[in-house]
Amino acid sequence: MLYAAKSDITIERVRALVGQTGPESPMIEYKETWAKSIARGVAALANTYGGLVLVGVTDDRRVTGVEEDVIKRVADHCSTKIEPPWVPEIIPVPLDENSDRFVLVLRVPPDHPYRPLLVEGVAYVRHQNTTYPADWQRLRDLFVETGAPNGSDNAWTIRSPDLPVGVDGIQDETVDFIIRSGLEIPVSRDAKWRPLDERTVGRLIGALNQSPLDSALWGLVLGDLSSGDGQRFQRSGPNNGSRTVSLETWRAPAGWPHATIKPVTGKVEITVPGGYGDFARSLRIQADIVVRWSAAAENPPPWWQISPDRLGGLIDATVSTLSDQEVTDSLAELAGIDVLAVPQPRIVHFRTARAVSDVLATTGLRQIPGAGGARGAHLLADPSCDLSNVVERQRQVKSWLIQIAMDAGLEGMTQLLEG
Length: 419
Fold this sequence. Notes:
seven-stranded antiparallel sheet; five-stranded mixed sheet
């Protein structure tokens, strides 16, 4: 609801949200009617993780609504009490088709461009379900933090992957494609200074090894085969300091001919930036899937190609894993925040070593004359899409597959997916 189109915010969705979240959370506040504390709640959300204020919902979660004139009172109140003056987006949602009462949905974006917002000279913040004045240390942090300038999107903090190169600096010719996604997660004040907890990292490893991504990697490798070799996610790499964790996995069919080149590898990195004298403001998790199936092809190589449904399944498993409850619970614990403040993945990078039309199986697709040559795609999620919901996630993945095809100059993906 924080990102959905206004027309999609219905009283049914409001009731469902209230029923799901239970008591107030770090990102949701209930107000039965207009109150002087609304401006404090709005400012506190803007100064913390963003969120929603629902006016017309009681503390015991009854949706009662308010009269229409409360809309103006709320807007005037925020404009006069918040410094610098700011009014959140206010969406009136009727209780039913002919009702003269509304639930007011006040939307506070998580990347407000100005911090801190003050109310009567005080910077309020949220912790759990409580609004309270920031202490001097948190106030100092708010003044040095910057939101997204001019409302720009921070999804691009997860950058497109570079194709691997060998020790000679030449591009690794065995790579077919790379899929990358990830999250940028706010870190609580208490967690800024501390190293990544070893037991929680172990819990995250266990969640990854039970995730949809683990199953998808096995499925990609085995296909119709009965057996394969592999290593599940475990710590690896030389840079596993107290603030960085690197987890790696690989899969190969039984009897794979190359001992050093694995057809499917996965790497998950968790990083809390900063170090001595430089505390973190965010935790980043980045997941890379690298596919090198062509490494086993005969010479001259009949390039291995991945079918749209398998590519879609791999992308689906990647974003599903980053939205998985066990994974997000572990990340929230590492960052010292409520799990509701852990965002969902907003971006997927699909990077190919050759033209997409040489990597993607094109049966049923048509090349547009004079088009093509793309070597991947940058895929942004609809921010109103709940990627933890299988129906909404698969709808989003289908949209991404159509984008990949169109960027590559290929028509017919829509009809192929409908079939």
